[in-house]
Amino acid sequence: MEPIIEVKGIGKRYDIRHGQGGYIALRDVLMNVMRRPFSFAKDKAKRVAGIKTREDFWALRDVSFNVEQGEIIGIIGRNGAGKSTLLKILTGITPPTTGEIKMRGRVASLLEIGTGFHPELTGRENIFLNGAILGMTKKEIADNFDSIVEFAEIEKFLDTPVKYYSSGMYVRLAFSVASHMEPDILLVDEVLAVGDAEFQKKCMGKMEEVTRKQGRTILFVSHNLSAVKRLCKKTVLIEKGQVKMFDETERVITRYLNSAEMSSMNEFPLEPGKKAQVTKVSIMNAAGQPATRMTVNEGFTIEMDYEISSPVKMTPSVIFYAEGDILLFSSESDTTASVGDFEPGKYKTSVKVPPNLLNVGMYYIDTRLHRPGVENFDMKQGINFEIIDAAENPQSIVYNGKHPGKLAVALKYKTAKTK
Amino acid sequence: MIDCTGMTAPTTIIRPKKTFSWEDMRELWRYRELLYFFTWRDLKVRYKQTLIGVLWALLQPLITMVVFSVFFGQLAQVPSDGVPYPIFVYVGLLFWQFFSGALTETSNTLISNQPIITKVYFPRLILPISGVITKLVDFGVAAIVLVGLMLYYGFVPHFAGLWLLPVLLAIAFMASVGGGLFLAAVNVKYRDVRHALPFFIQILLFLTPVIYPASIAGKFSWLLALNPMTGVIQSARAALLGTTPVNWTLLGLSFSVCLVVLIIGTIYFKKVERYFADIL
Is the pTM of this model over 0.90? Predict the structure, then answer.
């Protein structure tokens, strides 16, 4: 049988200029022409003659793989490796520069849930609008309407504008519409990153259910390695715009984790088209030095640099994972009042992690710019660090080794003789 | 380029994008339902958001008409080909506001729909077209005022010319879509264009025979004719008010200019469409 998806020699080139500024002001271009008419003409002439005057950046190069019907394929890789670009090409949002993709069957993509939701429209109206944007026909939406409402649990608010919805209701409705698409091929990005743990579980369950039952083919781009492990039998590892490995998930993940080296500072190239994005994440020890190893009782600071290109309402946040992809906890800055309207510009947020919180072991963090439960602007993943035992722990005169457990919280013990 | 063939097992082929192919037009047809939903959304939201709802679509041309009638009709005594000035100017305004409104609306449509464009594929042409259709609905609403005006002034329209109205509307539609596509595409790349646009539209109003008859321009009226809206508005008056016989040469010229605008707009839009999602 023919493979349901054939990806052949896909490449995507970005003009660095596009990559950085996005759009430009005509005013600036005109000023430039007037100020330096000759060099402008020269550049133009060179470009017309096919001589390269600017730098190109290949986000993807010669990517090829096949997917058989009914397979659920994970796509993993570090930030900026090209996963999202690949997905955008597969969905048709942006065309490739080279290569060809053949997909046999109805294709639907889900890069975000609630795409096109309009706050002024009611839940009922948004179901139809969002469904149509996702590629469902009016009839399909109408046929599935009751089931969508039921899964979202919003019967009572069906005729309320969604701007009055809680973020939980909003996400539930959005996911519910998305999960009622019935394509042969489904392309999914990190959409499950929104919502609480409970809801994520429900979504994962629903995804598993639809794929098992209907033999649907899914490409699943994710940072969440445990989700990939659970859903996907095979996984593509993308590194620097190329397919590094395409094999059984277990083996690919092992390879991926081993190749991710520790670094106290991680810089990320600006991706085009994002409203807000993290450009640098670094970890500083108590002495203010870049570090990847801290002692249990030391305390350290996570610094996020980010750039806002158009005004957004959001909060920076950090999510902590322990070895084996255990989500320890996440923290949002909105609890400390720095959520709000961000004007375009560069920002730095530092997050203080107190001493005696994380126990001895390997950890990693994801940094995120988002409006919880509403919109995910950017997520940079996998900054690794290690917590080591304090050689001489002044806090404890009794025990110096590793306590069991992931946390090393120093609780206050007060003991008194009562009798 | 995305193309699907066959109904039961459609095959999607993605290749580096060509500027234009007939397949794009077929694809547009396949996405007609989404076109409907975008239009439906814009109308719904607008009539919901505005406190006075539909009234806004009525009041805007009405108030403009009153102001123009007082200043140009009464005070400046601008000739109106023997028709009551309010009716004369309103026919012009009706078409003009459709055209200028559509240009303003569509020039911004890609930017205001940016979150959708960067997350979902659909033929991008749909958005500007839906913007123009939205304005068409406003045109319909505003036309009610014209009927009211005619009743008020006891003016009997030239019924024999009514059949020409859809043709004129189609020409204005073409001009709006063509110009709108061009502006929408330029606006994605050069974000400051939209700040200059209202000014140019304002200027263009005075270069179009809305508040005055085209005859006022004398021997330079052929220059005015290059503006596609000139032919449309003049013919609308001729057909509806019976002021002058319909000038077919002029209308033909307007139609040709509209066609050129539409073709240039579409080609430019298709040419830059490929990087919309990358730079939005």
Answer: no
